Amino acid sequence: PATGGMQQPPATGGMQQPPTGGMQQPPTGGMQPPSPPQQQQPIQAQPNGNLDRLSNPTPAIASPNGPEIVSPPPILTIEPLSPPSEPGGQSSVTLAPAGPNPSSSEAIAPQPAPNTPPSQPPGENPPPPDSNLPPGEVAPPPIPMNVANITQSLEVGNVSNAVLQLDRLQDQQFATYLGTDLSQQPVQSTESIRDTLRNITQQTDTKPAIVYTLLLPDQLEIVVVTTEGTPIRKTVPEANRQAILETALELRQQISNPRFRSTKQYLIHAQTLYQWLIAPIQEELAAQNIDTLLFSMDAGLRGLPIAALHDGEKFLVEQYAIALIPSISLTDMRYIPLRNSRVLAMGASQFTQLNALPAVPLELSTIAEELWQGQALLNESFTRTNLIAKRQEYPYQIIHLATHAEFNPGEQKNSFIQLWNEQLYLDELRTLGWNNPQVELLVLSACRTAVGDETAELGFAGLALAAGVKSALASLWYVSDEGTLALMTEFYQHLAEVPIKAEALQNAQLSLLRGEVKITEGELRGTGVLRGVQLPADLVGVENTDLSHPYYWAGFTMIGSPW
Prior knowledge:
This protein is α/β, with parallel strands linked by helices. The chain is built from 13 helices and 18 strands. The strands form 4 sheets. It has a 6-stranded mixed beta sheet with strand order 7-6-8-12-14-18, with helices on both faces. It has a 5-stranded mixed beta sheet with strand order 3-2-1-4-5, sandwiched between helices. Strands 11-10-9-13 form a 4-stranded mixed beta sheet. Strand 16 and strand 17 form a beta hairpin.
C-alpha cells in the first residue's frame, strides 16, 4: 500500500483509493458518595483546575512502556464558558434555551436517598472517608459535582433523571470544547426520547437504542434508552475507569497498527471490552430486537473502534449498525432519505509538504460519476472559495472530501482539513454555510485522531456539530489506500440501497470483513455494480486478498445522526 499520513505519516496508511461504486485493580480506598446539594440550587459544574481535562489536556492513559499509573485519571470537569458575574462566584455552563426552572417541579435535580446525612454546601465535595491505603497508592480524586449528581440519581433508582443529566453533561462538554452556545433545547424527558425513537422506527423499519456510558473510578455505569419501558441501568464493577481506558487504548493500538494486520492479538482486548460494554445489556437489546446502537460515550471512549468489539464468535458490527453521538439534544434525529441526493466530491492527490494521495482522482470520479450523481473537483480546484461557491450554486446534500485531515490535542484550531492551498481548521467549518441548507452527510475519507487525548476525541465525536452537518463519516486512523478505496466504494453502493447511513456503513464494513471485496490482478473487485475497478499505477503492485482485518474497516465511524 502507498504510504501516507499527516505531518508524521504512519507506517502504512495514507489516503485511500477511489471507490467504485493488564489491568490495575482500583485503589482500595473507597469513596463516600457525595451528599446531595440543596434542592433549590441549580446544578453547577464545579470549576477545578486539577480536574479539568479540557484546559489541561493530557493523555488519558500512559503508554504501554510508560510509567506505572498509581491512580485512576481524573474525571473531566467542565469549566464555565464565561467568568462569574461577581467576584468569587461560580457559574454553570448553560445551553440556550435554558432547561426548566430549578424551582419548578420539572427541574432536573438529584433525588435524596432515605436517611442521607446532612448535605454539604452547594458546589463542595464531601470530605474523603478514612481509609488505610497501601504504601505508594493514592486515593482517587473527588468526583466532580456534575458527575456526583448523576451517580446519586442512579443510586436512588431515578434512572430517568440520570439520563437527562447524562445528556446535559455531554452538552456541556461539547459546548466548552467548541467554545460556543450550541443553542439547542435540552431533552426534557425520557418519554420524548422514546417518542423520537418510535418515529424513526416507523420511518425506517429499524429498532434503535441509545447507550450512555459513565466511567467512574470504581465502576462502569451503562444506561440504555429504547422505544419501550423505562431506561435500563447496568453497573460493571470490574470495569473501573483505569482498567477500561487502558484496555481501550491497547485495542486501538493493536488494530490501527498496519504491522499487526496478519495477527489476531486484538481479540483479547476486543472481547474484554465487549463483556464490559455490551454483554451486560445484550439480553435487553435482544428482547426488543434492537438493530441500531447510538453510543453517547464518556470522555476517553470516544476514540474507541467500537465496531471491532467481539463476543467470542462475532464482531459487534455483525450484530448492529452503529453511530457515535455527542448527546440526544445535539443530534438531529429527523429522517431524510438520501437516494435522490447529489454529491460534491473534492480532494487533492498532490501536496507540497504532505504525502501524495495517488488514488484520489479515481476515488472522486468513481463516487461522483459512477456510483452517485454529482460533481468532482481535484487539486487546484479544491479551495475554500470553490467549496463555498459550489454549495451556493447547488444545495448538495453530500460532501465528500478526499484529503489529509487530523484531529489533534488542544483547541479546535489545532485540528484541520487540508485543502489544496491552505488548511481549513475545525473552528472555521461553520463559516462554510453547510447548515443552511443543511448538509446531510460529510465524508472525510482519510483522517486520523490523536490517541489517548480527550480533546482530540471531542473534535472527532463533535465533527458533525462543528461543521453544522447532520451526519459525518470519518476514520480514527489512516487506512491503507486499497482499504479505503474498498470501503468507500462499498459504502456509496449501499447508501443507495438501505434506508439509513449507519446501515450503509455497516454493510460496507461487513463486505470487507467477510472477504467479499478483494484486490487482485491490479483491480479492486467488490460487490454491486462495480465488480472490477482498475487501480492507479501506484497501486498496481498491491496484492492483498484479505481485507477482513479490522485495521481496514473498524476505524470508520458514523458520527452524529445515523439516519
